[in-house]
Write a structure and sequence with these properties.
- The protein has 183 residues and is mainly α.
- The chain is built from six helices and no strands.
- It has one domain: Four Helix Bundle (Hemerythrin (Met), subunit A).
- The longest helix has 32 residues.
Length: 183
């Protein structure tokens, strides 16, 4: 069974199975974030990378990015809760969320996590978190989203998701909503 089919079978399966696997999904997500930060700190030490933007300036940039990421994540979670689901693909909402930050980009929570990781990298003055590990994390997520999550969403929501995917960018929001009605 492919990962896409596995996620789909869990997402559309029994409530008990979804609830049992949700903490597993949170744990995996949390461990990947800890790994990015830990590997970044380790890489900086082993390779003797210089501190990235040392001092208050780097920490300030880091705090702004971290807070921005946290606020957008919180906004996304509110929309998931309102739709009676979780951000964990094992226990998603039953309806396609297209409001709030999801009106501007398909993956605002993932974008927020990327932003927060860059923020942590700047806050810790870690050249490798910013230039190696977060970009690698982003690349892995893009592959996972394109090969597992998006096909699973298409299985679950069909033409509604295909239309949404055509209209709304993946990570970076459009500054203008001009022309939406023309699609």
């Amino acid at each position: 069974m492919s990962l896409r089919r596995f996620f789909h079978s869990v997402a559309t399966g029994s409530r008990r199975k979804r609830e049992l696997l949700t903490p597993v999904g949170f744990l995996i997500f949390g461990l990947t974030l800890v790994a990015v930060v830990g590997l970044g700190i380790y890489t900086d030490r082993v390779l003797s990378f210089p501190k990235l933007l040392p001092g208050a300036f780097g920490m300030g940039i880091g705090m702004v990015l971290l807070m921005l990421g946290a606020v957008v994540c919180g906004w996304c979670v509110l929309h998931f809760r309102k739709a009676k689901g979780t951000p964990v693909p094992f226990n998603p909402p039953k309806k396609l969320i297209v409001e709030g930050p999801y009106a501007w980009m398909r993956n605002p929570m993932v974008t927020a996590v990327f932003t927060a990781l860059f923020g942590i990298g700047f806050f810790l003055h870690s050249a490798s978190i910013v230039s190696i590990w977060t970009p690698l994390y982003i690349l892995v997520h893009i592959v996972e989203l394109k090969t597992v999550e998006e096909p699973e969403l298409e299985l679950r929501f069909g033409s509604a998701y295909r239309k949404y995917r055509r209209k709304v960018p993946m990570f970076v929001p459009r500054l203008s909503r001009r022309g939406e009605g023309q699609r």
